Amino acid sequence: MNTGGRLIAGSHNRNEFVLINADESARIRSVEELSGQSCQICGDEIELSDDGESFVACNECAFPVCRPCYEYERREGNQSCPQCKTRYKRIKGSPRVEGDEEDDGIDDLDFEFDYKSGIGSEQVSDGFSRRNSEFDLASAAHGSQIPLLTYGDEDVEISSDRHALIVSPSPSQVNRFHHQPPFADTAAHPRPMVPQKDLAVYGYGSVAWKDRMEEWKRKQTEKFEVVKHDGDSSFGDGDDAEIPMMDEGRQPLSRKVPIKSSKINPYRMLIILRLVILGLFFHYRIRHPVKDAYALWLASVICEIWFAVSWVLDQFPKWYPIERETYLDRLSLRYEKEGKPSELAGVDVFVSTVDPLKEPPLITANTVLSILAVDYPVDRVACYVSDDGAAMLTFEALSETAEFARKWVPFCKKYSIEPRAPEWYFCHKMDYLKNKVHPAFVRERRAMKRDYEEFKVKINALVATAQKVPEEGWTMQDGTPWPGNNVRDHPGMIQVFLGNNGVLDVEDHELPRLVYVSREKRPGFDHHKKAGAMNSLIRVSAVLSNAPYLLNVDCDHYINNSKALREAMCFMMDPQSGKKICYVQFPQRFDGIDRHDRYSNRNVVFFDINMKGLDGLQGPIYVGTGCVFRRQALYGYDAPKKKKAPRMTCNCWPKWCCFCCGVRKNRKTKTVDNNKKKKNREASKQIHALENIEEGANNNVKSPEATQLKLEKKYGQSPVFIASAGMENGGLARDASPASLLREAIQVISCGYEDKTEWGKEIGWIYGSVTEDILTGFKMHSHGWRSVYCTPKIPAFKGSAPINLSDRLHQVLRWALGSVEIFMSRHCPIWYGYGGGLKGLERLSYINSVVYPWTSIPLLVYCSLPAICLLTGKFIVPEISNYASILFMSLFASIAVTGILEMQWSRVGIHDWWRNEQFWVIGGVSSHLFALFQGLLKVLAGVNTNFTVTSKAADDGEFSELYIFKWTSLLIPPTTLFIINVIGVVVGISDAISNGYDSWGPLFGRLFFALWVILHLYPFLKGLLGKQDRMPTIILVWSILLASILTLLWVRVNPFVGKDGPVLEICGLDCL
Questions:
Q1: 263: part of which helix (H) or strand (E)?
Q2: N or C: which end of the chain has fewer CB within 10 A?
Q3: 418-456 pLDDT, tens per residue?
Q4: Which residues make Cβ contacts (< 8 Å) with residue 835, sequence separation at least 6?
Q5: Contact (Cβ atoms closer than 8 angstroms) between residue 300 and residue 308
Q6: What angle do CA 1061, 1067, 1070 make, to 5 degrees?
Q7: What is the pLDDT of residue 201?
């Protein structure tokens, strides 16, 4: 399109696009054409008001409408502007209609209720029958390469590379940027900015427009006749009975439930009080050193300062704890209409597994079955199983699972079975007849249980066969060698078991899609463990189904609540707040844990206290499983930003108030400065727009090849995936064949696909740590997204946890090692992500999540001090005065009361709280300490450590795994601490007995700290003794060795003997 050097102007709101000549006279004529002097509905000329101005019906967009059409629309139509949908306000001289504001500032009682003096219906009908022939816009240049000007508002229907943000130029600016056109008398013809918004297409001014209005009213009526309130007799049978449903369908899908002020305010006040007490405590400790035990005193003060900093990092992110409620009925009212396809968004579910011998196929099969039977539209669910071990056992087990799902899924949906993992449904001791009224239920349940037992036998037979691998490798049923015989060198594999291939259940209903995926692995490539497998699933799912939301679960975490996806959609699909949510995190709940939860496997304090506190800030951290993601957030997009509402001026004080006048002056000055800055920005925008126009006429502002190359560098060289990445609402190309999609899916899981792309750096699961979950969530929060913590009454997911001591310590070791790796990387939250969207208290929580392993060193030292004090007869605190005793008692009381108030507002039991405190000490002096040294060796010396997949299997018998002992070096430090503190207690009491009553007073302080350490290590001692209450030999040997060394040192110090030698006195007794 040849612009002839003219400036392109337009208005998206008014649907206008014109070419304005640069000379002054032509510019004025063009502006007059933009004013719109004819009604866009009937075509009549718009009348002038009493003051000579054109009649304006809508003050928001100034859409040209004459007064008769305005009156008719208010009286008979939907009372809103046809373009911006803003409700018409009553203008002076117009009759009042229902819905007008009472106080509108218009005093014209003569016309307020005068309906007879309005325009006749015949005249209005004639007006509506005329077409506006002046706006014949079929010849609009849709393919123009010139940037389109939208007056600061970007139109979603115009590609971003064709926009130029500009404001309406002033005469001085037009003269300044003057371009002489080749012809001066060319008239400016208005044309639509977007051809799809052509007024002729809209049908304004025709009968078609009225039909469209009737269609809209009919849809609005149908929208709220979907779900009937069963048993609700509070409303009548007339038209008013539908009003509650209409209001219910438009209500938010979730709400925040703040903690009661009577519980949270004392908690916050106590935190501030505890800070004050800590300040006074350190003031006393630093100003009163212990001269005869200076080293012990200095070490204790350093440890206490570190503990105080750790407490601040952990405590203040819990300042705004909240809870949430969801409304599943409103979700159905909004997105599931009777007789129409469901409008719920699609969800791709990811299940990851590696070693089928440590993660039994039966557990994975139960997880998959619970996903396939979830209460969600079957065409909106797809399950992708990632087999990162390329095991034929997993493949065969998944094939058997797909066959059993044809029976299990319709059974669950027919009888509303909960939970929908058959292993846990049949083994739970519960009243399975509760709320069951169908007479055939018992018979079908028995048949289903028999089918499941046969299914278990088949899976067990596969596991037994897989124990011994043939020398030539595994062979498939058709004689083809299994491609994954070499785990470290095999091609990518994809198998679609269910969905869109004609496989139906036993009742001829469609089943959700089930896909087996094993990514390609070759020597010499870094495959990035679980994070790499998850990124492969992102790309495969984008090619095959491309749902806008993703659910990530571990292979041992089954869906316990069949409405879990609906719970998440109440947040993600909420039209008001859902756009800024990157993921919905569910708490982890576990089966198979002993009643006492000896090693704090449930982690209740973290999930019910810390996570609720983070939900009140920017959202919980991602914990690796049970999380529903927004796909666009994983692609590295920034969160959408809201336009800030204009501030209200202060008119509450009279003008003579000096303070308010000062504020007004300051605001006025700031407003002038802002206007100047705005004008400068507008001028720069105009210059930039003109440069784009000049260059764009010859060079096509940004070529499609350059854009495609940039996307390939970001996402990889897959045109199908790149196209899917731009679809915010998901979906696939209509002309894509299944064969071509599968070929593309194989490409995106190739081992070299991520080379020289942003995968693992800015996109998907982030690489660089074995705890990729913390990094991934941190990156999304840094982009301005927020997350949500959803805690339904029925736990959404349940899993298995390692309940024996050694496996539990190794699990904690892996988590702590990942935190150390993040701390030593460029993504450390202490120095990364500033200037983004991460809030301050949220950053504190992330800092705490990567700093806590460093607490192991001061914790180990502090737990050793009581034994050293008892063995040497010295203490870390000088002689306590009355003031010091009050400080110490206040500090201990504030610690105890803080815990009590936390348990009160979070409803966490004291048993769970105490178990968490105990395992904090056990894990701190063992797993965290080893993780710190391993992380330093890995980062500084390049010594890599391989983590072991936690075993998910259990032996025969309930809690039998609890008593299994597995030797590990992690057991040495806590065992040694326990023994030396016990020895210290014995030595201290012996010393007090031998020295008389005067030595009992100082002994109590030392004994208190030693017993504090022993009580915290008590669950560890029970784990060592096992079921038979017998300590393993190797632990006994190491502990005796270290305890003997410390005892010999104590003998060398010899605290019972004074510095001047033994004191010999005559006792006065005749021993002869």
A1: helix 261-287
A2: C
A3: 889 999 988 877 666 666 667 788 888 899 999 999 999
A4: none
A5: no
A6: 130
A7: 44
Cis status of the peptide bond prior to 289, with omega within 30 of 0: no
Task: Please give the average per-residue pLDDT across 62-76, as a whole number.
Answer: 82
Looking up tokens 């019972």 gives 1056
What b/e readout covers 57-95, taking b as 16+ CB neighbours within 10 angstroms? bbeebbbbbbbbbbbbbbbebeeebbbeeeebbbbebbb
Q: For residues 99 and 79, what is the distance between their CA atoms, to the nearest angstrom?
A: 9
How does residue 726 score in pLDDT terms, banded at 50, 70 and 90? confident
pLDDT at 255 over 60: yes
Half-sphere exposure at residue 661, Cβ-oriented, CA atoms within 13 angstroms: 5
H/E stretch holding 786 reads strand 786-789
Report pLDDT for 635. 92
Token pair belonging to 110:
């003569």
Catalytic residue among 388, 556, 574, 807: 388
What type of residue is 990? S
**Which candidate in 348, 574, 773, 807 is catalytic?**
773
- Enter the pTM of the model: 0.70
With 0-12 CB in 10 A as exposed, 13-18 as middle and 19+ as buried, what is 618?
buried
Does residue 736 surpass a pLDDT of 60? yes
Least Cα distance to 581 among 626, 528, 620 occurs for 620
The pLDDT assigned to 1029 comes to 47
What phi, psi does 688 have (nearest 5°)? Answer: -60, -40
Q: Round the CA-based radius of gyration of the chain to a whole number and report it.
A: 37
From residue 790, give the alpha-carbon distance in Å to each of 321, 574, 793, 801. 13, 14, 10, 21
Round to whole Å and give the CA distance between 119 and 492: 74
- CA 95 from chain centre, in angstroms, equals 51
How confident is the prediction for the chain on average, in pLDDT?
75
What is the tens place of the pLDDT at every residue in 1002-1035? Answer: 677 778 888 888 888 887 777 666 554 455 555 6
User: What is the percent of the chain with per-residue pLDDT over 70, rounded to a whole number?
Assistant: 68
pLDDT given at position 956: 43
* Residue 510: exposure state from Cβ atoms within 10 A (0-12, 13-18, ≥19): middle
Report how far residue 400's alpha carbon sits from residue 408's, in angstroms, rounded to the nearest whole number.
12
| Alpha-helical runs (H) found in 761-881 | 772-782, 805-823, 840-851, 856-872
Q: How far apart are CA 1067 and CA 1059, in angstroms?
A: 22
- Position 1052: which residue type? R
Tell me which residue of 206, 209, 202, 246 sits closest to 224, measured CA to CA: 246
Quickly tell me which residue has 């009604």 as its tokens: 39
Residues contacting residue 1007 through CB under 8 Å, at least 6 positions apart: 870, 985, 988, 989
Among candidate residues 389, 806, 797, 878, the one with its CA nearest the CA of residue 564: 797
Residues 227, 329 contacting (CB under 8 angstroms): yes
388 is catalytic: yes
CA gap 811, 833 in Å, rounded: 29
DSSP structural state of residue 787: E
Residue type, 820: V
Give kind and range of the element (H or E) at residue 11: strand 7-11
- Give yes or no for a contact between 149 and 212, defined as CB atoms under 8 angstroms apart: no
Among candidates 348, 413, 335, which has minimal Cα distance to 380? 348
Q: Which of 636, 643, 642 is nearest to 782 (CA)?
A: 636
CB 118 within 8 A of CB 71: yes
Q: Using alpha carbons, select from 877, 1019, 1028, 861 the residue that is nearest to residue 929.
A: 861
Contact between 544 and 741 under an 8 Å Cβ cutoff? The reply is yes
Which residue(s) pair with 382 in the sheet? 348, 513
Question: Which stretch of DSSP H or E encloses residue 741?
Answer: helix 738-748
Write out pLDDT tens, residues 384-427: 999 988 888 999 999 999 999 999 999 999 888 888 999 998 88
On whether the CB atoms of residues 967 and 1034 are closer than 8 A, the answer is: yes
773 as an active site residue: the answer is yes
**How would you label 798-815 residue by residue, b for 16+ Cβ within 10 Å and e otherwise?**
bbbbbbbbbbbbbbbbbb
pLDDT interval class at 538 (50, 70, 90): very high
